[in-house]
Amino acid sequence: MKLGVIGLGYVGLTFSVVAASKGIEVIALEKSEEIKNKLKNKQGHFFEPGLDDLINVLYNKKLFVKNNFSISDNINIFFITVGTPLLPNSNTPNYDYLKSALNSIAEVYDGSQLIILRSTIAVGTTRNIVIPFLSKLINKPEDEVLLAFCPERTIEGRAIQELQELPQIIGANNKEALFLAENLFRQITNTVIKIESLEAAELIKLFNNTYRDIHFAVGNVFNEIAQGYGIDGVNLIKTANLGYSRSNIALPGFVGGPCLEKDAYILTENMSESTGKQFVLNSRKYNESLEDKLVNWVVKNFNINDKICISGLAFKGVPDTSDLRGSSSISIVNKLNKLGYLPNLHDYIAYEKDIVDQIKGNYFSKFDDAVENCKALIILNNNIRYSKLDLRVLLTHMRKEEIFILDFWSAMNNSSLNLYNNIIYKNAGNILIDL
Q: Is the domain 2-195 a CATH 3.40.30.10 member?
């Protein structure tokens, strides 16, 4: 078996190294010189535990990177992993990357190979757009195209592990495509779930992510309701859940990342208004509204000349990730930039180049340097390293007068905060009371 992977982004690269580690020869197509140079140096272009170790073992042995496929590659399965962003200033999916990926195999695809789609797409896209495109490409009937939709469902920070453990969903357009896809994934993970249609597979991916988005929205709404009564929302939700198995209200916080920021919009792309479309969209928009609430809190409490540190720029802190895609922190800093704020910037995992390419401010790789003489520290993700901060050391670096700490995710160990009269401490559970 030879696997041709199109796109070495997060999904493509993690899958490629896991497949190669199982003895499958992987030939990957990648245009980015930066990504290719990283791989030549046996490194990935993002942080993922275990990734660099596998690249070091597999690169140019079982994992090969090219600019174009050739017939002599003898590829059996083409694996399309390119992203599906939203169009600029729109909530409509942009399929340009998908179309480009399909065009990239035009010279070597003859219809005998299986095509596996891994990209997140609106329901019906595989059958109504991809299959007709491939059918025309090989001048054969649509029912002879071999195509499967197999959604990616790993979490960043545990992708290498989860690719080998999570059940793999497979939807296909015919029995042969289903058989070939199953044969591939049984070499990678123990559980394969074959489902009734391409559309069902497309929906499962969108349901998984949109469910989480809605679940978090409920926690965020309840948090705001509690604060409307002057009650700390975080403490109230924790108490409501405590020892009560029928309550699993999500703790409040930002909801972003490369999937959750857009999958509600992709799910609703082909939905009618009568099928819960507004319910899904309202949940997404409510989660997005938290960014403006935090910006308003900053504007209310600080002027543009105040020295502020914003730490926690990756879209999440646990597990570790360097990924800034869909990060509410990046969006918040951008909004503050437009208002004239230039904060100190810090993140434990994200790469400096990725940060400074997207937002304005003074970047510091060391946390102590980032908070030096600052009036406020704003922590915007839940990286476990914040729990290990020593308040006494932190205070030696920040200014000596009254200081603000907004620990949005309650990531710090704040048990000794009441010993310091000059600290005003806020988290997601009580920040809205001030607005």
A: no
CA distances from 311 to 329, 399, 409 (A): 9, 17, 12
CB 311 within 8 A of CB 294: no
Cis, bond preceding 151 (omega within 30 deg of 0): no
What are the angstrom distances between the C-alpha of 317 and each of 87, 157, 234, 289? 27, 10, 18, 21
CA distance 161 to 170: 19
Measured from the Cβ of residue 18, the count of other Cβ atoms closer than 10 Å reads 24
Strand partners, 310: 345, 378
Domain range summary for the chain, segments of one domain joined by +? 2-195, 205-282, 289-434
CATH classification number, 205-282, choose in 3.30.200, 1.10.1040, 1.20.58, 1.10.3470:
1.10.1040
Cβ neighbours around 397 below 10 Å, total: 16
Q: Is 221 exposed, middle or buried (0-12, 13-18, 19+ CB in 10 A)?
A: middle
Report the residue count for the chain: 435
Class of domain 289-434: alpha beta
Per-residue pLDDT of the chain (435 residues; tens, 9 = 90+): 899 999 999 999 999 999 999 999 999 999 999 999 999 999 999 999 999 999 999 999 999 999 999 999 999 999 999 989 999 888 999 999 999 999 999 999 999 999 999 999 999 999 999 999 999 999 999 999 999 999 999 999 999 999 999 999 999 999 999 999 999 999 999 999 999 999 999 999 999 999 999 999 999 999 999 999 999 999 999 999 999 999 999 999 999 999 999 999 999 999 988 889 999 999 999 999 999 999 999 999 999 999 999 999 999 999 999 999 999 999 999 999 999 999 999 999 999 999 999 999 999 999 999 999 999 999 999 999 999 999 989 999 998 889 999 999 999 988 788 788 899 999 999 999 987
